[in-house]
Amino acid sequence: MYPHLGRMLLKGRHVRSIQSLLRRRMPTFGNCDAPPPPPVKPPGPGDASLDGSCGGSNQFTCTNSTFGACCSSGNWCGDSSAHCGTACQSAFGTCAGESNVSSDGKCGSNGKICLGSGFGDCCSSSGWCGGAAEHCGTGCQTAFGNCTAGSGSGGGDSGGNAGTISTDGTCAGTKGLLCKGSIYGDCCSSSGYCGSSAAHCGPGCQSSFGNCATSGDVSTDGSCGKNGKTCKGSSFGDCCSSSGFCGGTTAHCGAGCQSGFGTCAAADNISTDGACGSNGKTCKESAFGDCCSASGFCGASTDHCGAGCQTNAGTCSGGASNNISTDGSCGKNGKLCKGTTFGDCCSSGGFCGASTDHCGTGCQASFGTCTTTGSDNISTDGSCGKNGKTCKGSTFGDCCSSGGFCGKSTDHCGPGCQTLFGTCTAGAGSISTDGACGKNGKTCKGSTFGDCCSSSGFCGKSTDHCGAGCQSSFGTCTTGAGSVSTDGSCGKNGKTCKGSTFGDCCSANGFCGKSSDHCGTGCQGSFGTCNGAADSLSKDGACGSRNGKTCVGAGFGTCCSSTGYCGSTGSHCGQGCQTGFSSGCFTRNIPTNDGTCGASKGGFTCAGGPFDNQCCSSVAGQRAITADLAVSGVLEDVTDQGETGRR
């Protein structure tokens, strides 16, 4: 009847209960009458990221964040090459572009990085680039360089000297000027002058004020110069290129070559009188020959290029397996033909082969085997082949065995008999398995490359293989009208379709006819007429821009190398492979042919080519290689490998 009275009584009991509870709990938790704290301001545009995100819609910056100072293209903070490299957002953090590399040794707070600076790759806690423990140790700023002791070549604290790079060529002294990074050269000589010659970088060089090259600093990974390493005595070549890589090519030893870190062959340093070595002159590109003998004279004979040859003053044959030609070129590039699949003779033009043109007049004996017709080349002790001696006309027998001995038995004249150094029994060789024939005793008859052995010693089925110069002792050769097919078969049996009643074209399968199947793709031009496409096939292993011939379908391999030779090795299908004349050029995991490697060098790998089983270095100047590229095995997941390398 009086509901409001009940509610009032209930309310009174609740109030008393609450008051009692508050009296019991207030001392434990404090003053409940205090005003609430102001709300925390959430991070906004321009503030340091608290969750690793940056740029984008929130406009957070990575500067001073705990995730890394670089904002990647994907809007995440970090310190890896994936964050600081390509597409890095400089508006929201630090980026590692060339323009951001420190030019005065200062780093960190000014946004400059030490990687590639020349002062050292570590940014110290006080903001100076260097490579000493105080730079790379406690407090090292990972966002602005590496933090591994010994990184780069900077030594000691850059400190106040970091900004005192020599501008007049003088160094050390009372001013303490540095040569490192100067336009005069990175080495400070004992006399206090900057330069990059042996006089600056050798004995007496002041390492506190620049780089110095000592015998203990021989490059072990192919890098030189900027990291203080010398190429002199390295396995990569004695010349240090302008970009800091060891090698023996004109690109390494010519313009820009750093003489303080190896040998250089400047134009004015080439011998003009045949003397070399001790006078500082090189034989490389001289008119006397590219090799400097032990006694200091230029030439191209074994006496010049063999034992005692001075590698710092020219090219030497050496005989090392890694000096064997992989693409058919020889001589001036220091490569040997002996043991190659192209032939053991190096022609006057610098190409490996086994024909008279390769092994006869002008043949370079220092880079392979040569044959002469003079009596002084006839074996007088029964040995032949490897020593360049022939058995033809000797008192031991006219055949040179596979073991290199003259005789006239089946063992000498049969399988393995060396035709370049004497007489061999017709058909003595076994079937070629690699396309080479003749001089190695192998026959083309029944091979997969073609039944004819060319004058150059290659199996095939073109006119160049089966026509003039064809070696009938090691396969089938065409002989004219008498070889016209009378039953419609052609090619492997030595019969030609030209003039036959079945058609003038010999198909890939060895049948005469005149349809597109006979005259088109696969048509054997050596045994009849073919459409134009067949004429573009390489007939002797040469290809590419040098002659316009393709390797595809030619039988020598599907890749045309940078030097214009067909084949299927990493040297053919790797760096420089001519895609317009090939079908097998590598599109990933491409082997290097000149020693450059890594993401910053076209993504080339050391695996599979002439540098197989070697490592792609991670030194200053090549830093992006290990930051972006996995060098242990297959090139996979560039970004992940780069981040792992950073950690």
Q: What are the low-pLDDT stretches, counting only 5+ consecutive residues below 50?
A: 25-30, 149-163, 620-647
The portion of residues assigned to helices is 10-25%
- Distance from N terminus to C terminus (CA atoms, Å) equals 81 Å
Number of helices: 14
> Compute the gyration radius: what is it?
37 Å
Q: Assess the beta-strand content as a share of residues.
A: 5-15%
The total of beta strands comes to 20
Mean pLDDT: 72
Assembly state here? single chain
- Derived from helix and strand composition plus strand pairing, the structural class reads little secondary structure
Shape assignment: flat
Report the biggest beta sheet as strand number plus sense, adding barrel if it closes: 2 strands, antiparallel
Looking across the biggest beta sheet, what order are the strands in?
1-2
Disulfide bonds: 70-84, 122-136, 187-201, 239-253, 291-305, 345-359, 399-413, 452-466, 505-519, 559-573
Region (Disordered): 29-48
Protein name: Chitin-binding type-1 domain-containing protein
Cofactor: Co(2+)
Write a structural description.
The chain is mostly loops. The protein has a domain at 599-646. It has 14 helices and 20 strands. A two-stranded antiparallel sheet has the order 1-2. Strand 19 and strand 20 form a beta hairpin. It is flat, with a radius of gyration of 37 Å. Its cofactor is Co(2+). InterPro entries: Chitin-bd_1 (IPR001002), Endochitinase-like_sf (IPR036861). Residues 51-97, 104-149, 168-214, 221-266, 273-318, 327-372, 381-426, 434-479, 487-532, 540-587 form the Chitin-binding type-1 domain. This is Chitin-binding type-1 domain-containing protein.
